[in-house]
Design goal:
By secondary structure, the chain is mostly helical. Helix content is 72%, strand content 1%. Strands 1-2 form a two-stranded parallel ribbon.
């Protein structure tokens, strides 16, 4: 080997020493990826047991996106070192990976042949003097309110992404991981409860807008007519408990300590809460289920997850 090649190798070694850093995945990230791995295994078993199949090409875009985001996280962890960006992109990859595996799990959960729970949910509404049909008709008769409710109902994903970015750029990466855990715990709980108490929702139960895609998909899964996942866009089909309400509460909770953001999220999510019956087609009882799920998730993450994984919510990461 010539002296020129030796010189090039020495330069490469010097560059690696000054630009490439060793990094180790924190315990909480390893734990979340383990949960995702278990979810993927459970999905595979569920598909086999229920005699269903998954159109793999439907996942290509998501797998590619996760790979790209993880690549960005690696670059900012090991090459162009920026811990806050590295953590933020890592969290985004986890959100996407868990959402994909959880969406498949929600379809499998809907195939569990348990009696629909809608009659009991509607009876609970009536016991509290709540009339879903009257509420739906009132909102439909007020287009401006309906438009406001639609906007609030569609705001969850932007809220989630914004709070993750804001916490990381402020240096509260442990708080960002708390949000990720709250999302994972609440979504997992929602999946389990939806399998135990399946519901078509108020649209399906009252036969109002029953042709909505998510209602038709849920009913097709529940009665066994749908056996293939991925040949049509994946729908959010869980009705009880309301994940919209649970996540709205969790995101408002995540904004604590930032007065302007907290008040903004609180106002938006009060509107979201009010919009959920008419816009989301949820029974009122679904909302109370979402509240209980959120509170249980906060308790579990604060009392079990955070202490065991050493998440210090007050720590600010250095640049």
């Amino acid at each position: 080997m010539g002296t020129g090649n030796f010189a090039m190798l020495e330069k490469l070694k010097d560059w690696k020493k000054t630009h490439v850093f060793k990094t180790e995945m924190p315990a909480n990230a390893r734990a979340i990826w383990s949960v995702i791995g278990l979810m993927i295994v459970a999905d595979a078993i569920g598909l086999k047991v229920q005699g269903m199949s998954l159109v793999l090409h439907a996942l290509i875009a998501n797998v590619a996106a996760i790979s790209i985001i993880m690549g960005i996280s690696f670059i900012y962890s090991c090459v162009r070192r920026s811990p806050r960006i590295a953590e933020m992109t890592h969290m985004m990859a986890i959100l996407l990976a868990y959402t994909c595996s959880g969406a498949i799990a929600s379809y499998i959960a809907a195939t569990v042949h348990r009696p629909l729970f809608d009659a009991q949910l509607a009876a609970a509404d009536r016991a509290l003097g709540l009339n879903w049909i009257a509420c739906y008709r009132w909102v439909a008769a007020h287009p401006h309110i309906e438009a406001l409710f639609l906007t609030a109902y569609a705001s969850l994903i932007p809220q989630l992404l914004f709070v993750i970015m804001m916490l990381n750029f402020k240096g509260f990466c442990a708080r960002g991981w708390e949000v990720i855990w709250l999302f994972v715990v609440s979504c997992t709980g929602c999946l389990i409860l939806s399998a135990i108490w399946p519901a078509a929702g108020a649209f399906g139960y009252y036969h109002i807008e029953a042709n909505r895609p998510y209602v038709q998909v849920f009913l097709g899964l529940h009665n066994g007519a749908i056996k293939i996942i991925g040949n049509q866009p994946i729908q959010g089909i869980i009705q009880f408990p309301s994940f919209h309400v649970a996540l709205a509460i969790l995101l408002t909770y995540a904004a604590r300590g930032f007065p302007i953001l907290f008040i903004t999220f609180l106002e938006i999510n009060i509107l979201l809460f009010l919009s959920t019956p008419a816009i989301g087609g949820h029974h009122f009882a679904d909302l109370w289920g979402g509240v209980a799920l959120a509170l249980a998730s906060i308790w579990l993450v604060r009392k079990v997850v955070s202490p065991r994984l050493g998440l210090d919510m007050t720590k600010v990461m250095e640049m």
